[in-house]
Design goal:
- The chain has about 375 residues and is α+β, with helices and mostly antiparallel strands.
- It has 3 domains: about 1-130, PAS domain (Beta-Lactamase), CATH 3.30.450.20; about 135-220, Helix Hairpins; about 230-385, Histidine kinase-like ATPase, C-terminal domain (Heat Shock Protein 90).
- The chain has helices at about 1-25, 45-50, 55-60, 70-85, 130-190, 195-220, 235-245, 270-290, 340-350, 375-385, and strands at about 30-35, 40-45, 95-100, 105-120, 120-130, 230, 255-260, 265-270, 295-305, 305-315, 355-360, 370-375.
- The strands form 3 sheets. A 5-stranded antiparallel beta sheet has the order 2-1-5-4-3. A 5-stranded mixed beta sheet has the order 7-9-10-12-11. Strands 6-8 form a two-stranded antiparallel sheet.
- Strand 1 (about 30-35) and strand 2 form a beta hairpin.
- The termini are far apart.
- The site of magnesium ion (MG) has 5 residues, from helix 8.
Length: about 375
C-alpha cells in the first residue's frame, strides 16, 4: 500500500513538473531562475529568443551575462543586500531595466522578480518582457507630436509672415518714394556730391529688394486658389522657354523641349504654372553657366493621372547637403537669388493637387526637377466627347 502511495505521489509530481515545464517554455515572456549566488538554474525558450543565448550556454553561469556591464557589476551586491536585509527593491514591485543581447545590443525590459524558498535554498524567478515594441510606439507618438508642434508653428509663421508683409509694404513704398524724390531733385540741382548720390542709389536698390522679398513672401503665404484654364501643353512649354530666353542674346539656345505627342489639355492656373516652370528653367540656366556642356531640357509626358514636366540640366547638380533645405524659403545658395523660387513653386504645385520635387533616382550628372500636375478627369472626358 505504502509503495502504491509513493508511486502515485511520484506520478503526480512528474505530471505537475511536466505541466510546469510546458508553461515555462510556452510563456511569451522570458523566465529566468537563479539561485542565491546568481547562478542561472533555468532559462526558458522566450529568454533564449530575447537574449540570443541557448539555455545550455547560460545555465551554471552568473546571470550578469544578460545585463549591461554597469548593471552586471552591481547585481551580485543587490541580491546580497536583499538576502541580508530583506529590503525589497525589485521583488514584487517590478521595474524597467536594461538587458544585454549576446550580440552586445542593449534594450529595455520590464523585470518582475519573485523569490521562493526551496529545498535547494532560496531561488529567484525573474520574468522579463521586451519593451522595445512599446518603446517604438511611444517614439512614433513622440515624433508625431513633435511634427504637429512644428506644423502649428509653421502655420503661425504663415499668418505672421502675411501680417508682416502687409504691414511693411506701406512704409517701404514710402521710403522708396522719398529716396527717389531726393535723388531726382539732387540730380537736377546738383546739390549733393557723387558719394551721397551713390549711397542714395544703393539705398533705393536695397529698398527695392526688400519690396521684392515682401511681394514674394506674400505669394508664398497667401495660397491663392488657382484660376484654372485649359492649356495646350506643347504651346505652353515653348512659351515658357521663350520667356526665359527673352533678353538674352545667346545665339544657340540652351533649351531643348521634348513633348510627348497627343497629350490632353491641362486645367491649371497659367500664370502660376508659368512662374514655376520659368523659375525651374532659370535655375537650370544658372546651374549650367560656366559648364563645358550647357544643356537644359524641358520635357512633358503623361504618367498615370498626371502630366509630368521635367527640367533637367547639365550643371553640377544639387549638392547633397543642400537637398534637405532645397524647398525651404530663403535657403538659396546664390548671392543674387532670394531662395524663394522653389518654395513658392512647390506650394503652387501642391495647391494644384500636384507636387514638385528633385528627382534623385537618375544616374546622370546635373539636376532634374519634376513638376507633377493632375490631369482633370473632366478635361479628359471633355476632350474625348
Ligand atoms: N538646377 C539646379 N542645379 C543646382 N542647384 C540648384 C538648381 N536649382 C536650384 N538649385 C539650388 O537651390 C537653391 C534654391 O533655388 P530657388 O529657386 O528656390 O532660389 P534661388 O534661385 O536661389 O532664388 P530665387 O528666389 O530668385 O529663385 C538655389 O540657390 C541653388 O543653390
Ligand atoms: Mg530660382
Amino acid at each position: 500500500m505504502d509503495q502504491l502511495v509513493d508511486e502515485l505521489g511520484k506520478a503526480q509530481s512528474t505530471v505537475s513538473e511536466a505541466r510546469l515545464a510546458s508553461v515555462f517554455d510556452t510563456a511569451a515572456d522570458g523566465i529566468v531562475v537563479i539561485d542565491e549566488n546568481c547562478t542561472v538554474l533555468a532559462f526558458n525558450k522566450a529568454s533564449e529568443t530575447l537574449f540570443g543565448y541557448s539555455a545550455a550556454e547560460l545555465i551554471g553561469n552568473n546571470v550578469s551575462k544578460i545585463m549591461p556591464a554597469d548593471f552586471a557589476v552591481a547585481h551580485d551586491g543587490y541580491v546580497q543586500h536583499y538576502l541580508d536585509t530583506g529590503v525589497k527593491k525589485i521583488i514584487g514591485i517590478g521595474r524597467e531595466v536594461r538587458g544585454r543581447h549576446k550580440d552586445g545590443t542593449e534594450f529595455p525590459v520590464e523585470l518582475s522578480v519573485g523569490d521562493a524558498s526551496t529545498s535547494e535554498g532560496r531561488q529567484f524567478i525573474g520574468i522579463l518582457r521586451d519593451l522595445r515594441p512599446r518603446k517604438s510606439v511611444e517614439d512614433r507618438l513622440a515624433q508625431a507630436q513633435a511634427q504637429l508642434v512644428h506644423m502649428t508653428r509653421i502655420s503661425a509663421m504663415d499668418e505672421m509672415g502675411a501680417a508682416i508683409a502687409h504691414e511693411l509694404n506701406q512704409p517701404l513704398t514710402a521710403i522708396l518714394l522719398y529716396l527717389q524724390s531726393v535723388s531726382r531733385k539732387a540730380a537736377r540741382t546738383e546739390a549733393l556730391d557723387e558719394m551721397t548720390l551713390s549711397v542714395i542709389e544703393k539705398a533705393v536698390k536695397e529698398a527695392e529688394r526688400a519690396g521684392d522679398i515682401i511681394q514674394r513672401m506674400r505669394q508664398l503665404v497667401e495660397k491663392k486658389e488657382p484660376e484654372r484654364e485649359q492649356i495646350d501643353i506643347a504651346e505652353f512649354a515653348h512659351a515658357c522657354i521663350g520667356l526665359v530666353e527673352m533678353g538674352t542674346n545667346e545665339r544657340n539656345s540652351l533649351f531643348a523641349c521634348v513633348i510627348e505627342p497627343d497629350l490632353p489639355t491641362l486645367g491649371v492656373d497659367p500664370v502660376q504654372i508659368r512662374q514655376v516652370l520659368v523659375n525651374l528653367l532659370r535655375n537650370a540656366r544658372e546651374a549650367v553657366s560656366g559648364m563645358k556642356i550647357r544643356r537644359v531640357t524641358l520635357s512633358a509626358r503623361h504618367n498615370g493621372d498626371f502630366i509630368e514636366f521635367r527640367v533637367s540640366d547639365s550643371g553640377p547638380g544639387v549638392p547633397p547637403e543642400v537637398v534637405p533645405e532645397l524647398f525651404k524659403a530663403f535657403s538659396g545658395q546664390k548671392q543674387k537669388g532670394l531662395g524663394l523660387g522653389l518654395a513658392i513653386s512647390r506650394s503652387i504645385a501642391q495647391n494644384h493637387g500636384g507636387d514638385l520635387y528633385l528627382d534623385t533616382s537618375g544616374e546622370e550628372r546635373g539636376a532634374t526637377f519634376v513638376l507633377k500636375l493632375p490631369v482633370e478627369t473632366t478635361a479628359k472626358t471633355g476632350a474625348r466627347s
